Amino acid sequence: MSEMKTKRTSVVIVGAGIGGVRAAQVLAEQDVDVTIIDRNNYQLFPPLLYQVSTAVLAESEIAYPVREFFRSHPNVNFYLGEVQDFDTDNQTVITDHGNVDYDYLIVAAGSTTNYFGMKSVEQHAFPMKTMTEAIAIRNQIIRCLERAEQEPDEAKRRELLTFVCVGGGPTGVEEAGAISELIYKSMRRDYHKLNFDEVDIKLMEGTDRVLAMMPEKLRNRTVSILQQKKVDVRLSTAVVDYDGHTIKLKSGESIPTQTVIWAAGVKASPIMSKLGTEAIRDGRINVQKNLSVKGLVNVYAIGDCACFIQQEGERPLATVAPVAMKEAELCAANIIRRMQGASQEVFSYKDRGRDGNNRPRSSSPAFRQHQYDRVLCLVSLALGSSFQAGWYLCQPDRFTEMDVELPAQYKTFPHSHQPLS
Description:
alpha/beta; FAD/NAD(P)-binding domain; elongated; disordered C terminus
């Protein structure tokens, strides 16, 4: 079934993530019809998935209905479906529930887990990019504890009680710390027959540092706190295989475990390859200075699936929420400008953690305090005993533009724990 074009200009947005919804919010105030396509009818807040995976938060506390964003905007519609292909010649998005025509297309399809070609790891490890995956990790942790308490064989118990997080970025660090808090502080009181000295939580990172974006002093402090929480932090440790029972390292070491959580990297959503345009190694498609896709008519890409390079020779902009939101705003503005026959604006993003020469402002006391607050937030949420203190440090007014700006509907629930409607 093909949707008939409306009289007004039709803008289709693929993806209801932070970038996609933000673009729709800007366009909602214009004389256009907007259709958001996503396989889930809720927007997820990915930075808190690790707390769902360790039973700190309920699912409803990090998800918000997409339709509820636009209750007062009848020109914005949500279309539940999974995109399977693009017919850019006929300006149509092909989904598993029918086709959707567009005048302008914004692709904000996000990213997925990158296993770097290791099929066995992909088959047996636990990723954490979706709500379903976070719930699967939570169930796995509880299942392993239940089975371990009943298992008479010590070797099998230790296999069940070994939890490995691969990837020393924020997700891996947060997850390892949160698992420690869950097991040693909460579960210890419930599993009376379990020997918690047999629990082994490991964090593995292929490079020589965790949280590479942080100053060395704070990276070292993070490792120290993780170790205090009984997390075995292994740097310069590369994983080469995992069969569901044994993880194999490049060094030749093998570690028995039934739980490997993979947070070692991301790549663009596979649907991006259907656009048939130039992409970089991780699948992100190259976009022009106005965020349009070269060679395609009226097609834009933003967020984790887009590769934007501000200056020749620089690295692409990071796949973080602040970049996606700024891209969404300019992309929506450029669509309106094109409709009005005006010239397109060029996207420019200033990382407020750097000076005008693109050097880290590490000598600035304000910047040092800013970075210190970021680590305090990370440590408090993932490792510390005070969730309230951690949440306070993560509020938007504590951070600059380079950090995640929580949508308004998320800003109060950690204190009230009220379910979403």
